[in-house]
Design goal:
Helices cover 38% and strands 18% of the residues. The chain has 545 residues and is α/β, with parallel strands linked by helices.
Length: 545
């Protein structure tokens, strides 16, 4: 809508049209939005008077009781004043951990006020120590706004030059679009509930990893660590009875994915799910294929996973899918559950709703294999600020490495289990035992990889925890291994294809091995891009860890 059109819409409003007053709460000069906001109300037959806060007083407003109908338009520095362009750069980079309490308090205040909020994801000055940490801060602010009930808008409407020169933050070309979003946030249209919930399994449906911990090692009963997963299953059962289709996708072997449902001890049974898809294909490809078989659109889906890498892969490849991260703490679980159920709200349940799962299960019988195409995660992985620590465990502290070798199935070179004595025999003859730990912007993952090489350069064991699949750790590890190898050395993989190690088989196939051999220089060249995603720390250069 152009400005003259907005003028005409307001002028055409009947004199006896119902009138209202709204406080447009911003920390910047926002009067240029008034006429467009009034026009949006005029088109709905309402006469609107817009009031404003004094310049730069939005922060104080959150501490006062609301006296008018309010609609808030927030920028990053309304959460953290240190990110305001007008105040310059802080003397020292900010630390996100130090800001967490302030963000949580602001979330709580805004939730209690309960007014409509728009959050404009405007660019911030570089206040963090690195681009990766700057991206992490931007993500945390978006999360805070979302938790406070805000609608998130991209930062294209923000005009930095105008903001610095006049205090007006919204570019004139974007004024109508922002006014329309403000109106929609004040008077939201009812949305159709989503129809399909696609869920991950490990660390979501149950606590633990079925491929490593086995049936006896996962937890889903109403006690201890299994409690959130028990409640999650109950919520899914309720959704199923209301007509929501529940499906599972897991980067796992299909029989392992189904095994817990077949025990009869969980709240959910296999018959409660329309499909359980277990494969090592990208989850976006699995979801797309499932929806094609169901003849439903991607905008019908909510996807739940605990892994931010998997969530990014799906949201990048399938932007219409609503992605939710399963919380890593019990304290965050109630909020997650409320947000999940909100996507499936409906007033009534029919007999057809209750029978929908069985109807679609019949349709999916004989479903063809999934296409393997997925999203490129390079940009997202770069933003994780991943740190790989290299350990030489040949002499000491090898318990975790041996545990990984004897516990891991999916990314396991040959499935062989090793005793202490067998490991000693290889090492005493000049063999080497390496491991790697992983940390990223979200925290530490611990020791996640182990590799045993005998004196002749044969890799006798190589395993990686399936928790870090898709991060390219395996390729980065091999690149570092090539750097530790003797010039001209040819590594030989003692590879055995097992019923469970498809992820490792697929990876080694990409290396185009010749008789399970690969030269050091060619290996380094093939894995160089993956190595660039990680900051390397060599624990052997300091002290054993």
């Amino acid at each position: 809508m152009k400005y003259l059109q907005a003028q005409r819409a307001v002028a055409a409003l009947a004199d006896d049209a119902p009138a209202s007053i709204v406080l447009l709460a911003t920390s910047f000069q926002s009067e240029n939005l008034d006429r467009y906001l009034q026009a949006r109300h005029a088109l709905a037959g309402q006469r609107l008077t817009v009031q404003h806060l004094p310049f730069n007083t939005l922060a104080q407003q959150s501490y006062t009781a609301a006296s008018l109908d309010e609609v808030w338009l927030m920028l990053p520095w309304d959460w953290l004043p240190e990110t305001d362009w007008r105040t310059g750069l802080p003397a020292q980079p900010l630390g996100l951990a130090d800001l967490e309490a302030r963000l949580a308090a602001q979330e709580q205040r805004l939730q209690q006020r309960g007014m409509p909020i728009l959050y404009l994801d405007a660019p911030m000055p570089p206040v963090m120590a690195s681009p990766a940490q700057q991206a992490q801060l931007a993500n945390r602010l978006r999360e805070a706004a979302y938790r406070a009930g805000a609608r998130l808008l991209d930062g294209e409407a923000f005009d930095l030059a105008s903001f610095l020169n006049t205090g007006v933050a919204i570019a004139g070309r974007s004024a109508d679009a922002i006014a329309e979003a403000l109106y929609e946030q004040r008077y939201p249209s009812p949305k159709s509930p989503r129809k399909v919930l696609v869920t991950d399994l490990d660390q979501v449906m149950w606590q633990g990893i079925i491929g490593e911990d086995g049936l006896d090692g996962i937890q889903y009963r109403p006690e201890g660590a299994g409690y959130p997963h028990f409640l999650y299953q109950q919520a899914l059962q309720r959704l199923k009875h209301g007509g929501t289709l529940i499906a599972a996708v897991s980067r796992n072997d299909a029989d392992l994915a189904r095994a817990p449902f077949e025990t009869g001890t969980m709240s959910l049974s296999e018959s409660d799910l329309v499909a359980i898809l277990g494969s090592y294909q990208p989850k976006s490809a699995q979801i797309r294929h499932l929806l094609e078989q169901l003849d439903l659109g991607l905008d019908a889906v909510v996807f739940v996973d605990d892994n931010p890498v998997e969530l990014s892969e799906v949201s990048t490849a399938l932007p219409d899918v609503q992605c939710l991260q399963f919380p890593d703490s019990v304290a965050a679980f109630p909020d997650f559950l409320e947000r999940l159920l909100t996507h499936f709200e409906q007033d009534t349940t029919s007999q057809e709703d209750r029978q929908r799962t069985e109807l679609y299960r019949t349709r999916l019988k004989g479903m063809a294999p999934v296409n393997a195409e997925g999203a490129d995660l390079t940009d997202f992985l770069s933003s994780l600020d991943m740190q790989l620590t290299w350990h030489d465990r040949s002499q000491t502290q090898r318990d975790r490495a041996l545990q990984l070798i004897n516990k891991t199935n999916q990314f396991n070179l040959n499935g062989k289990r090793w005793t202490d004595d067998e490991l000693d025999a290889v090492l005493s003859q000049g063999g080497r035992l390496y491991s790697a730990s992983l940390a990223d912007a979200h925290g530490g993952h611990g020791e996640i990889m182990a590799c045993l090489i005998d004196v002749e350069g044969c890799i006798r064991a190589w395993v990686m925890s399936c928790r870090v699949l898709q991060r390219q750790v395996e390729a980065a590890f091999l690149h570092i291994l090539s750097e530790h190898s003797v010039a001209g050395e040819i590594l030989v993989f003692d590879r055995v294809n097992t019923a469970r190690n498809r992820p490792l088989q697929d990876f080694l196939d990409t290396l185009a091995l010749k008789h399970n051999q690969i030269e050091r220089d060619r290996l380094a060249q093939q894995t160089q891009a993956a190595r660039a995603l990680f900051t390397l720390h060599n624990a052997t250069e300091t002290s054993p860890s």
